């Protein structure tokens, strides 16, 4: 550990600060627009991924179908698990 870091830790000071809500938060219309764009983009992406999986299933390409399904569901489950833990 570098000497400077030991000095800060011995004196009870650290650069690590917990996350907290700022007292002067403001949300603009542009912020709201970007949230909506992000949500719509995510839903469109999910719909296109499901479309690809359905097309693989109809074409009887089952290996591709299952891999597509894994790559749709695995991130969703990881995201849900992380969200629940917080």
Automatic annotation (TrEMBL):
Pfam families: XK-related (PF09815)
Protein name per the record: XK-related protein
Lineage, highest ranks first: Eukaryota, Metazoa, Ecdysozoa, Arthropoda, Hexapoda
Location(s) in or outside the cell: Membrane
Top-level taxonomic group: Eukaryota
Membrane topology: Multi-pass membrane protein
Assigned protein family: Belongs to the XK family.
Keywords, sorted A to Z: Membrane, Transmembrane, Transmembrane helix
Gene name linked to the record: jg3195
Transmembrane segments: 21-44, 64-84
